[in-house]
Structure formats: structure tokens, C-alpha cells
Design a protein that fits this description.
The structure holds 2 protein chains of 2 kinds. By secondary structure, chain A is an alpha+beta fold. Chain A folds into 5 domains: about 140 residues, HPT domain (Four Helix Bundle (Hemerythrin (Met), subunit A), Up-down Bundle), CATH 1.20.120.160; about 240 residues, no CATH class; about 60 residues; about 180 residues, Histidine kinase-like ATPase, C-terminal domain (Heat Shock Protein 90); about 140 residues, SH3 type barrels. Helix content of chain A is about 40%, strand content about 20%. In chain A, strand 23 and strand 24 form a beta hairpin. Chain A is flat. By secondary structure, chain B is α/β, with parallel strands linked by helices. In chain B, the strands form 2 sheets. Chain B has a 3-stranded parallel β-sheet. In chain B, strands 2-4 form a two-stranded parallel sheet. Classes of the chains: A alpha+beta, B alpha/beta. Chains A and B meet through helix 7 and strand 4 of A and helix 1, strand 4, helix 2, helix 3 and helix 4 of B.
Chain lengths: ~775, ~100
């Protein structure tokens, strides 16, 4: 069913966010920055994953998440201290949860051995606490709810026999003596023994509360393949529920629309979880139902508060006992808003046939909690999640396309106005200036829609670092900075691979083993810093390690052995370091399981350059290395140099250009029948006549007649592009040539200029490669011997 | 003898309209519903059943649900409808 698949897709998207929250929460705890709200957030993340998984019957995921959640619940209620050791276990448990989610998403099979081992470990922690061993909940039964109540005093909560119809509109229905309802059919209230839902022998968590949840689904809820029964089952996972049905809106069978929703439900849930957790159950259906969640007895706060203590000593005692843990209990954080907002719902109290039981149980803690809560609630109001909308990326792409057209159109208009000789101070020219500013504003805003913080990429890295550290036996501390740095989504998606590779490289090759580090007088734990920042309209990613640095002698030797440089080449330290990016540099001897994987740094460099980016490394022996990756903020617009070539207008990406120069004839030396090289300082670079390479003209243009753009290609090699003239620098909107026409050798894309003409954007690497086809490719860097 | 209607295993969104139609067809006769093969009972089919139960009661005719499957019982319990359907569940044997 498409609809269901769509909802499932949304669930998995949310899982990604939840897993990210989970990890960042755990990392905060690891760093000792976590407070009780952090622990709550961590718990909620796992709980929400479980809840969603339950709705889609992802049994394996639910089972695993349940054990995980149970342990987190114990941490949350301070039954187990969040020791560094435990947090590390939780981090690994989070990794496995992520694996489970991935497996559920792809339909693959998670690593069952790893999962089973982790479940064992988690259960060990759960059971390891004092005498309060909780047997692993049986998974087949919903009774395994972690919060199943049995009071530690043995008094407060007595499993009671409650008629299902306690809350029904018909008060008499509960009385066995009056088994006739308005329909005239015999009606015997079902006796529901709550005891059968109780998990065996678990301690009652502090702050247990009864909640009254009224739930009226709309037709849309069912239409979207959601189901009330599943929601009720989810509620039951949180604690024992008593459900009553409200059929007051139910119409006659003749008039009944089978796809409309007439029934609503009133659920009394006894649980220790926060209101938010209850709300999470309805997360996916919140738009398609009416929902109120209030603490039981809320509408009568004044009354029981005054009476509870004198009326029932036991209740007062419980209230007192509960009051203290209650202050710290997460569930209480939201009392204040709830009190304020408490809508009037069906009040269970007047209807209940057993007032004594009623008074002795859930009503009592409520006023106590309400009294205790305000200072806490005021001081620590949980941050409301920001409202967000999900938008199909295609719509944004279309908007960006349109804005691109607008930019072009505006430029064309400006050019026309200029051609007609309007003075810059004329109304038209001024209005056009304003239009330009507005256009630019719109463009920036639209780009900002697609911009995302690099966090989504960064958050995958701690796990990678943990794994690589484990594999290499090194101790690594990952420091991440600038996770909020925003960059276009198209760039984000392609950041992951280079960063992954750079991190692997930093740990595997950069950091020394703990012993070597200690021997070198360093901390045994190496530090790898991953940072993102904006610099000069580009995003810069730095991966820095405090390891041994690049062994330049060895790098140089390898480069000589591989024929990448001549043995007598004179290289600066920086040039030597950058040799590792040359194709074919990665050596079999050096390839390890971690950073090897058949991908050398040259591949990383190429993928970065394909994005219009650059990568470089700088290193200090004994102190470490920094990889610096710089990328454009977006792939939709490009800073280019507009050039004329044989009557055509072309755009050269600015990132590829090192400098432009007007060559003198003595600097040009012929090489072979057709080729020529240009002396640039102490280096010769091959000259590439763009016009002849692209077939615009047959004869080579003397380079002295035009200009030469010195460009760097993907190998790090340089070349001089010969053009007729340079028009200037301009930001252009990239239009795909492949999707609008077809792929053309030497051309990366196209753009539309202010005068409406199409200009081709040069693929510098391809143009240089085209020129090289006939003659043998020169060395990437040719150093003049003299 | 009452008419018997066997409920299909999956009583979800799509089953609600056919279920209502089958019930309407049998209006005016005593009804015995066989719930033995039900694997899933959703909210929409539940309301059809409850509405039908009410309709039969208005007609003064018996309406029962016999041999409910475990899944049916469990769903009825979750829905808080065991009481309502429960009467007919129990009464089922009598007809």
C-alpha cells in the first residue's frame, strides 16, 4: 500500500533524527554535560523508535528497543547510575539500534549475534541493580511494559477489578444488578482483572500517575492506514490501561459511512512516564484526531488537595513518600502547563463504584506532585521542539530553478535598460537596482531553504571513530566543531565520503598507537578534530589529528619509486605532503583494512574537485596533520570567469583558476608538432587552446594573441587555457546540459547570460584531458631543470 | 435458526464497507456472527459491529458473536468493547 509505505518512509526519516538525538544525548552524558533532561531525551528517542516500529510491526526492532528502553528507564529513574562505563555501553547499544533501524528500512538482516550480545549486556545491567532484579519481559505479551506497577510499600496500588464501563455514560452499567442498557439487550460488564497485565515483581517507579486520555480519531486516521487498536496497544506498553468506548456519535447502520469515524475512546492510563511520552504514541496521528491528555483528578485539584490528607492517612503517606522523588522525576516537568491547560474531560471519580479504592490510589499523588512541581517546572521548562515542515526536495529544486530564471531575467532586463541609455539615476534604473536586490534576497532565501547544518553528516562520525579506534587498537577522542555550519543539501550529501575517508586516514595513519604516543611524551589518547566553518563564501572542513605527521622522506621515496616525481625534483614540504593525493600514490604496502578499501586519497581529491572543491594537507612532524577541504556552499550557482573563445562565450569555474596572464612570446616554447608549453616562473605548463579542443576553430591560436588562464586539474597538475579575451567574473546559475540536451565532452554544464544567450561552462579537467589525448600526458608538475 | 455471518480475517479499513453491506442484507433476521477466523479487528469495523448490534437490538432480534478468535477478543479488550460485545459473545452459545 503506497500510503503505508509513505508513512513508513516518514517514520524512518524520523528515526534518523531520533537516532541523532540519541547519540548526541549520550555523547553529552559521556562528556559529563547531561542533566536529567538529557537522560529523558535519550529515553524518549529510543521510546519513539520503539513506538513507531511497533506500529509497523517491526518485531525485531521493537524487541531490541524495548530492552534498551528498559535500561534507560532505570537510568532515568536513578535506579542505575549513568557511570561512564554504562554510557559507553549505551553508545554501543545506540549503534546497534541504528543497525536495526537500517535493517528494518532496507529489509536486510541485522547482525543477530551482535544484537543478542548487546541484549545480554543490557539485561545484565538491568538485572545487576541491587535486589530489584527485573526478569526480562516476555516479548510476546504487551504485559512487558516496563512501568507495570506494584508499589514498593505493597499498599498504594492494588490491582483492582474494574468494570470496563466505569467511564461510560451509563453510570448504572457498572452495577451488576442493573445489566440492561438503553439498547435493551442484556449487558453484563466484563470483569477485567488488571493484575493480569502486571509485569512480575517490578518496583513501582516513583511518580506514577493516572492519566485520562480522550481520543477521537478522524476518518483520515483510518484512511492513512493507522489504527486505533495499535495506538491503544502502544498506550498499554506504557502501563495498565482501562479503556471505555464513547459511541454517542455512532449512527444507525443505514446511515453509517464505513470510512467515517464515529467512535471515540477514553483511556485511563497508569504510568510513570511523562505526558510527552504518552503524546509520542499519537505522534503520527496527531493531525488526524482530537486528543486530550490530562492527569486524573486534574479538574478537581483544589478539592482533593484540601481533603486528601485528612481523609486517608495512607494516601497522605504515599503522597509524602512520592513527593520527594517526584521533584526530580521527569514526569513532573510538565505539570504546570498541564494544570493550566487542563480541559474538562469525563471525570472518572463520580462514576466509580468504589470510591475508597479510587481515593487510595492515583488521586492522592496528584496534588502532592502538583505542589512539589512548580519550582522545577519553572526552572526547567523543556524546550519545545521547533515546528518544521517536510517538503519534497523536488519542489525546492523547482523553486531554485525558477529563481535562477528570475536572476537571469533580471540581468537581461538590466542589460536592455543599459542599452537604451537610461541614466543610472533614472527611475527605471533605480527600480531595477531594487529589483536586483530583491532578486538576490530571494535567491539567498531559497538557497537557505536547502541549506542544512553539517550536523547530519557529522553525527555519523563518532560511531565511525569508535569503530576505527577499536579496529586499530588506538585510543581516540573526537572533537567536533561547527556542526551548525550550513551548506546546501546537494553538497551535504557528498561530504560524507570524503570526511569518512579523511577521518579513517587520520586515525589509521595519523595517530600513533597508545604506546608510541606515551613514549613520545603525548597523551595515550589521540585527538582528532573535525571542524566545519564558513570562509570566503565557501565551506571549509578540517580534519586534524595530533599524531606523528606525514613522514615526508617516505612519501617522497614512494613518489619517486612510483615514477610520480623525478628523483631530483625539488619540492617544498607542502608539495611533498600533497603528493599523497596523486593517483597511484596509495601503495599496497600501506593499504590497511581501515583506510585502504581500494580508495586512495586521489579518489577523495577527485570527488572533492568534482564538487568544485579543493583538498589540501599540511603537516608538522611529530605534531600531526590537518586535512582541509573547501567546497562551494551550493552546487546550483557558480562563480565563474566569463571568457571569449573564437566568438563563443564560455564560463570557467573560478575554483579551477589559479591566475590569468598575458604571455610573452619568449615564455612560450614549442613542444612536439602541435603542443607548446608556457614558462610560469620556474615551471613549464602545457598550453591548451580551448577553441581548437572544443572544435570552434581548426588552427591553433597563438597564445600571445590572447590570454592564458592558469588552471589546476584533478591530478594537481597545471595547464594554461588559451582564450581570446576575458569578459569578467560573474556568478552564474548552473543549468544541466545532460538533462536539457546531452553530455558534451569538455563541457560541464551551461548557463544563461544576461543577454539571454547560452554560455557553456567549461569542464576544465576534461578539456585538459582532451588536449592530452594525442600527445603523451605530461608529468603533473614539471619542474624546470635550470 | 439465525443467519450466520462469518467475519473475514482482516477487518480493516477496506473490510468496513463490505461488512456493513453484508449486515444490512441480513437485517430483520436473528444474527449469529462467526468471529473465529478474525486476525485483526480495526476501529472502523468495530463501529459497524456496534452499530449493527444496536440496530438488531432496536429490531428486538438476537445478535450474537460466537467463537471469537483470540485476536478478536484481544482487540475487543483493547478497544474497551469487551463489555458491549462481551454480552453477545457470551450469549452466542444460546442461539
Amino acid at each position: 500500500m503506497d500510503e503505508l509505505e509513505q508513512i513508513k518512509l516518514t517514520f524512518f526519516q524520523e528515526c534518523d533524527e531520533l537516532l541523532a538525538d540519541l547519540e548526541s544525548g549520550l555523547l553529552a552524558m559521556e562528556a559529563g554535560e547531561g542533566d536529567s533532561e538529557t537522560v529523558n531525551a535519550v529515553f524518549r528517542a529510543v521510546h519513539s523508535v520503539k513506538g513507531g516500529a511497533g506500529a509497523f510491526a517491526l518485531e525485531a526492532l521493537v524487541r531490541y528497543a524495548h530492552v534498551f528502553e528498559t535500561l534507560l528507564d532505570d537510568v532515568r529513574s536513578n535506579k542505575i547510575a549513568a557511570s561512564p562505563e554504562l554510557v559507553r555501553v549505551l553508545l554501543r547499544a545506540a549503534d546497534i539500534l541504528a543497525d536495526q533501524v537500517t535493517a528494518a528500512r532496507t529489509g536486510g538482516v541485522p547482525d543477530e549475534a551482535a544484537t543478542a550480545a548487546m541484549v545480554g549486556e543490557l539485561e545484565g545491567w538491568i538485572n545487576g541493580q541491587g535486589g530489584a532484579a527485573a526478569p526480562a519481559p516476555t516479548q510476546e505479551s504487551p504485559a512487558g511494559a516496563p512501568s507495570a506497577p506494584t508499589d514498593e510499600l505493597g499498599i498504594g496500588f492494588t490491582p483492582m477489578t474494574i468494570s470496563i464501563d466505569d467511564f461510560a455514560a451509563e453510570p448504572t452499567a457498572a452495577a451488576p444488578a442493573a445489566p440492561t442498557d438503553e439498547l435493551g439487550i442484556g449487558f453484563t460488564p466484563m470483569q477485567l482483572d488488571l493484575a493480569e497485565f502486571d509485569a512480575p515483581a517490578e518496583e513501582a517507579p516513583a511518580g506514577e500517575q493516572a492519566w485520562i486520555i480522550t481520543f477521537h480519531p478522524h476518518a483520515a486516521l483510518y484512511a492513512k492506514a493507522n489504527e486505533t487498536a495499535l495506538l491503544l496497544r502502544e498506550l498499554e506498553r506504557l502501563g495498565p490501561i482501562e479503556v471505555s468506548i464513547d459511541d454517542s456519535e455512532l449512527v444507525s447502520l443505514e446511515h453509517l459511512d464505513p470510512e467515517s469515524a464515529y467512535l471515540s475512546w477514553i483511556v485511563r492510563l497508569t504510568t510513570d512516564v511523562a505526558e510527552e511520552v504518552i503524546r509520542d504514541v499519537f505522534e503520527f496521528v496527531s493531525d488526524d484526531c482530537e486528543l486530550t491528555i490530562v492527569r486524573e483528578g486534574q479538574e478537581e485539584v483544589a478539592e482533593p488537595a484540601a481533603e486528601a490528607a485528612p481523609v486517608d492517612d495512607v494516601a497522605a503517606l504515599i503522597a509524602q513518600i512520592n513527593a520527594e522523588p517526584v521533584v526530580a522525576a521527569p514526569a513532573q516537568d510538565e505539570i504546570l502547563p498541564t494544570v493550566a491547560a487542563a480541559p474538562v474531560v469525563a471525570a472518572p471519580a463520580p462514576v466509580t463504584p468504589e470510591p475508597v479504592v479510587q481515593a487510595a490510589t492515583p488521586a492522592a499523588p496528584a496534588p502532592a506532585a502538583a505542589k512539589a512541581a512548580p519550582p522545577k517546572a519553572a526552572a526547567n521548562e523543556p524546550a519545545q521542539p521547533q515546528a518544521t515542515i517536510r517538503v519534497d526536495p523536488e519542489r525546492i529544486d523547482r523553486l531554485i530553478d525558477l529563481v535562477g530564471e528570475l536572476v537571469i531575467n533580471q540581468a537581461m532586463l538590466a542589460q536592455r535598460v543599459g542599452e537604451h541609455g537610461f541614466a543610472p539615476s533614472s527611475d527605471i534604473a533605480m527600480g531595477l537596482d531594487e529589483l536586483e536586490q530583491l532578486t538576490r534576497g530571494i535567491q539567498d532565501s531559497v538557497m537557505a531553504i536547502r541549506a542544512q547544518p553539517v550536523k547530519s553528516v557529522f553525527q555519523r562520525m563518532p560511531r565511525l571513530v569508535r569503530e576505527v579506534a577499536n579496529q586499530t587498537g588506538k585510543q581516540v577522542r573526537l572533537v567536533m566543531e561547527g556542526e551548525g555550519t550550513e551548506v546546501d543539501k546537494t553538497v551535504i550529501e557528498r561530504l560524507s565520503d570524503p570526511i569518512t575517508h579523511m577521518l579513517r586516514n587520520a586515525i589509521d595513519h595519523g595517530l600513533e598507537s597508545p604506546e608510541d604516543r606515551v613514549a613520545a611524551g603525548k597523551n595515550g589518547e589521540g585527538t582528532v578534530r573535525l571542524a566545519a566553518l564558513h570562509r570566503g563564501g565557501r565551506i571549509v572542513i578540517e580534519v586534524q589529528d595530533d599524531g606523528r605527521g606525514i613522514n615526508r622522506g617516505r612519501v617522497r621515496q614512494i613518489a619517486i619509486d612510483k615514477g610520480l616525481i623525478s628523483p631530483d625534483a625539488v619540492l617544498t614540504d607542502e608539495e611533498t605532503d600533497n603528493l599523497i593525493f596523486l593517483p597511484g600514490f596509495s601503495t599496497a604496502a600501506k593499504v590497511s583494512d581501515i583506510s585502504g578499501r581500494g580508495v586512495g586519497m586521489d579518489v577523495v581529491r577527485r570527488s572533492v574537485q568534482a564538487l568544485g572543491g579543493r583538498i589540501s594537507i599540511s603537516s608538522r612532524p611529530g605534531e600531526g596533520s590537518i586535512f582541509t577541504l573547501s567546497l562551494p556552499l551550493t552546487l546550483a550557482v557558480l562563480d565563474g570567469m566569463v571568457i571569449d573563445v573564437a566568438g563563443h562565450t564560455l564560463v570557467v569555474p573560478l575554483t579551477a583558476i589559479i591566475e590569468s596572464l598575458r604571455p610573452k612570446s619568449e615564455e612560450i616554447k614549442a613542444l612536439g608538432p602541435q603542443g607548446s608549453v608556457l614558462a610560469v616562473r620556474d615551471t613549464y605548463v602545457p598550453l591548451v587552446d580551448v577553441g581548437s579542443v572544443l572544435g570552434f576553430r581548426n588552427d591553433l591560436m597563438p597564445a600571445t594573441d590572447g590570454v592564458v588562464l592558469l588552471v589546476e586539474n584533478e591530478d594537481g597538475g597545471r595547464a594554461g587555457l588559451v582564450a581570446d579575451a576575458i569578459q569578467g567574473q560573474r556568478q552564474v546559475v548552473i543549468k544541466s546540459l545532460e538533462s536539457n540536451y546531452r553530455q558534451v565532452d569538455g563541457i560541464a554544464a551551461a548557463t544563461i547570460l544576461g543577454d539571454g544567450r547560452v554560455a557553456l561552462i567549461l569542464d576544465v579537467d576534461a578539456v585538459v584531458a582532451l588536449r592530452r589525448r594525442e600527445p603523451r600526458a605530461p608529468e603533473p608538475i614539471l619542474h624546470a631543470a635550470e | 435458526m439465525s443467519l450466520s455471518l462469518t467475519l473475514s480475517p482482516v477487518l480493516d479499513l477496506r473490510a468496513a464497507a463490505p461488512l456493513r453491506a453484508s449486515l444490512l442484507e441480513r437485517r430483520g433476521e436473528a444474527m449469529d456472527i462467526d468471529a473465529s477466523s478474525v486476525e485483526r479487528l480495526g476501529g472502523l469495523c468495530l463501529q459497524v459491529l456496534l452499530s449493527a448490534q444496536r440496530a438488531w437490538a432496536e429490531d428486538g432480534l438476537p445478535f450474537s458473536i460466537s467463537s471469537p478468535s483470540d485476536a478478536f477478543r484481544e482487540a475487543a479488550r483493547l478497544f474497551g468493547a469487551s463489555g458491549r460485545l462481551g454480552e453477545t459473545l457470551e450469549a452466542g452459545g444460546a442461539f
